[in-house]
Every structure is written in structure tokens, then in C-alpha cells.
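Take a protein:
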Amino acid sequence: MGSSILPSPLSVRVVLLFALTTLFLLPVRANSKHAGIARHYRFNIRLQSVTRLCHSRSIVTVNGQFPGPRIIAREGDRVVVKVVNHVQNKVTIHWHGVRQLRSGWAHGPAYVTQCPIQTGQSYTYNFTITGQRGTLFWHAHISWLRVTVYGPLIILPKQGVPYPFAKPYKEVPIIFGEWLNTDTEAIISQALQTGGGPNVSDAYTINGLPGPLYNCSAKDTFKLSVKPGKTYLLRLINAALNDELFFSIANHTLTVVEADATYIKPFQAETILITPRQTTNVLLRTKPHFPSASFLMAARPYVTGPGTFDNSTTAGILEYQLNNSSSSSSSTIKLPLFRPTLPPLNDTSFAANFTKRFHSLANAIVGHLF
């Protein structure tokens, strides 16, 4: 009889180890195309002279921009931002709404998760976007520097993952803010000394511009040029200090699809309410044909408390491109300008009914994303 050759115990263990290793590595390789990447940004905190309402003053900015630069990432990406402070103010940057999972040191509130960045010093924020997609924003988080130091944080879905709605023709960030003719640090210092409320802003702004309803601001107006029959995704951000804002576009209906980087069940509204530091994505479907008109987009506060507030309205202009040209209607012909009707300043009934319309989008897409 011939003798049989049996594998040694050592060789069996080697084969099993190789099989198990291959088994665990295959899913990683299969999903490697969906793995996030590192996105690097540099924020230089600098003074910049800016003129609004015929008042010029030096304000604290990021990279000399007001509002600041966009941060764009996909869900799963790592965001690395080096902040270099070139001004006399101490500063931190807060990534509002980002889930800082195992990266609490990157959260940004001064004296809470970090010491503020001193003059001439730098700090690098390093965090990963996990389980979120939509719109958030960043802003300074010390004293009142957030009046001028803020910008959008746009989180796209992972590669190959669609929106839970039809892909828009174009995406446009719209940031509501405030403008003060005097130094904001002096305002908050005075309020702390007197114990009274701080002076209110001199204007609200859309993308840093007050708009035509304020004196000396006709040229400082945000204009959104659109094509007929297209769908635009407006990424709305309320960077105002403390005020909730009504927002509407004359003769147009908005479809609300996301809030604070979370998809919701879509619903339509002619006017929306957005609270301080809240973000909301809405779809704007333009009219199918050239309307021979332009339309104001306006925002003003919702207020029910006894304190003083800025009772004014900021506005931009939605203008249609004429035929297939790249020029807008207002640059070629004089057209009527329609203005939206916003709710009363203290319309609590509208506010309550609007917020009740937010519901989770519990479908297969969202389940897959998480």
C-alpha cells in the first residue's frame, strides 16, 4: 500500500488565515470607490475694508471675503482647515451642525473645546463628515466676530448616491446675515457694561448685500439670474445673530427638501421660516416661459418678544435670462418688479404651522445612507 500525505497542522492554519484575510479584504476593495478623501483648506483671518449703506469700515474676514469662502465636501470626506490669525482679535471657527464624532477638539467654541487662536498663531481643524449631507455653515465662535466671519459648508452625497429628488439644474447658496455700521466688538462691550440689550443691526443682508429697500444700497443687491423651466436648489443659511426670518420669492413656490443636513419629506410653501443658524434646502422651479417680469426675494424678522430688533427687510432680485442669451432681463429691458407678501412680524400661527410640516424622510435611500 502506498502511504498518504496529510497536511501538517501548521499548513492548515496558514491556509485558513489566508482565506479569512481574503474574505475580510474583499468588501473593503469593493467599496473603495465610496471611501472619503481629505479636503484641505486654508483660512487667513484678515481685516478687510467693506462699504455698505454708504459706511466703510474695516471688518474681520476669512481670506478677505464677506461672506467667507465655501467649504465643499462629500459625506465621508475628511475636512482639514488650517486657520491662521492675522488680526488682533482672538478667534475660533465653529462648524455649526457637524457631528464631531471622536473629534470634539475640532468643534470650535472658544474656552469650551479649545483656547482661542492668538494673533500670529494657527490652529488646524480636522474632522470627518459622517451620516450627513445637505447644507451647514461655519462661523466664528467668540464674542460677536460671527457677524462678519461666516460661510457655507456644502455636503454632497457620496459618489454614485443620488439626491432623493430630481437633480437640480444649478445649486445656489443664499446666506442671510446682518450689517452694522459700527464696530461689533464695541457694541457688545457697551451692552455688557450697561446691562441693556445691544444695539440692533442697521440692515439684514443676502450674501452680504442689503438690497434695494435700504438707502444707498441699490447697487449692493444680490441678483439671481435664472433660465425658464429649470429647477434650482437654493441652500438657505441664516447667519443672522439672533433673529428668525421669513423668506419668500414673489410669485414663486418653494419646495422644502432638507433641514440642517438631513433630508425631509418634501413640502411646498410660498414663504418659509428659518431660525438663527438653521439651514434649509429648497427647490425653486422657474416659470416655463420668459415671464416679462423680475421678482423680489425678501427676508424680514419674525419677533414676539419685548426686546428691540431690526425691523427692516432685505431683498435680492430674481431675474430671468432673456431667451437663450447669457444676459439677464433687467440688463436689456425695463420690466415690472413684483414684491412678495411676507407674514406679519409676530405671526406665531404661521410659524407654528410651518414647523409642523417637517417630517423625516424615512425611505430606502436614507436608510442606505446611514
Notes: The chain is about 15% helix and 35% strand. The radius of gyration is 25 Å. The first strand starts at residue 38 and ends at 52.
